[in-house]
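Minutes, project check-in
Item: structure for the 585-residue chain
Input as provided by the requester:
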Amino acid sequence: MVYPPQQYPSVGEQGQFPEIRSEPPPLRTCYHQVRSLLGKRSYEQDEIASSPDVAATVTSPNYPIASDTAGTANSSNAYNVDVGDGVQYIAADQSNVFTVDGAVDKVNKQRWGKPVTAIFIHAGAGYHSIANEHHHLGACREAARVGMKALKAGRPATEAAEAALIVLENKEITNAGYGSNLAIDGTVECDATMVDHFGRSGACGAVPNVKNPISLARMILESSNKPLSLRRVPPNLLVCDGARDFARDSGMELVPNGDLISKNAHDRFVRWREDLRRAESRDAQVASPSRGEPVPQYNHEQDPHKEHTNAILTGTWNEGQPDSPAPPLSIGEYVDDYAGDGSPTPEPDPNPSCIAPHDGASDERDNVVSVSPESYTPRPSINHRATDSGCNGTIEDEDRITDTVGAIAIDQLGRIAAGSSSGGIGIKHRGRIGPAALVGVGTAVVPADSRDLDAVTVAAVTSGTGEHMATTMAAQRCAERIYQGSVRGVDGRDAPEDDETAILESFIVNDFLGHPGVRESTSTGAIGVMAVKKTPAGYYLYFAHNTESFALASMGSNDREPSYTMSRIQEGGNGIAHGAVKIGL
């Protein structure tokens, strides 16, 4: 019979020492690379030292064993160990065990330390004026703080990402939730997606009357994991009125359309409608000119509002594109049916028409070269020189940005989640589903393989020209490229690549811009991507964009304040900006 340590009978009690087994314990390393979130595997036996001079130790992976998390009476640092033959005793956990090698103790302390959580935010890829970038970076920082607060409270990654995105949806300066772009009839329809660490998703598309579509997406995700009667499969994507009905039935408050329209969103809509009417009138004159009259030629180079017009039109095909850098004109300066009473909710057009695709000649990225982005470091203050061509200080001060937003979170259990939210492009067709509602297009997670001892996982969120991102399955392709460490080779086959920065650049040049569906399109391919790779060495944020700017922020649980940046392509540049940051464990 084997007695636990410190319970052997003294000599004379029974006249002899009890028999001690001499078989050595199974050969195992102290710190094997098992990454089980539940701790010790069920088939792994506890290793008990038979020497009475050393306290019993139990080898475990990086996380406490199940009995640790359950707790024992009067001690959170102890657990029951069954020696056999019905004998049990209380043993201290591994963090209090004496070891001969001090280096092992140091490693042990690090591995049993408080888990590191992280939150990553982006506020869209487009053009952000220098004068107003502090507003957008401030929104990113606030979202990061709220997301980190949820993570430190022990909330799962999906809830943390939701909390962060709600902050951005409630900001007027973002194209998500309140203040979103209006459809061609003046209705606000939003898209959102939430993806968990298993790659399961919940999404809503073109949903009206919902202030926080990311909350609806998370509700759909949770409901999709609950079985239905008659072996029905629960949905993970709902759109339009069906999504709105689901929100109402689930107890979510619906709001009138007018409550989702901000003043700036209404002003944008009025400008877009006027520009659309002018464009249609010009096209009609070109198609059927009067006899004997010359066809009027529209010269963009001589147009004093060229930059204003280009930026306005860009907002009709790039969800991450900001509002025009020109000063917002009063509604009275436009001859528009919707501007007469200043109502925030315009009446539907009886004959809505679709906006013609913008040729984007001044924004083409055919010859893409790598440029150096701004360094990704905490920046407590912004002090930039206003260099935007055609924009003076007054113009920039009045600039307003409208962006798609995204978030990636990692919780205390190491689970990763990603979410996106958007109001879509301006004067879009009713019912248009954008990339923020499509899994693998705007949001993607590559789950950790169950046989991977390092439990590597990757999440990615994107912003830009939604239709092109749908053609290329942008988020999924980007996440898989980083996960597999590959790029598109010269013959179209995958080629190995270890540099994640090179992978992202190749993704934009070859997988996105080089895709036949994008290359042969009449619309410009704009994209910004934010990806996070979770490894045993740390969490790595990688980002890249071919738009003028990209707003990002990140925060780890060991950070006092979020890190943030407004990544920009160099002035006059026509290429790709990229960067990276690591959050250590």
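Outcome recorded: Residues 8-15, 24-109, 292-309, 322-402 have pLDDT under 50 and may be disordered.
No further action items on this chain.
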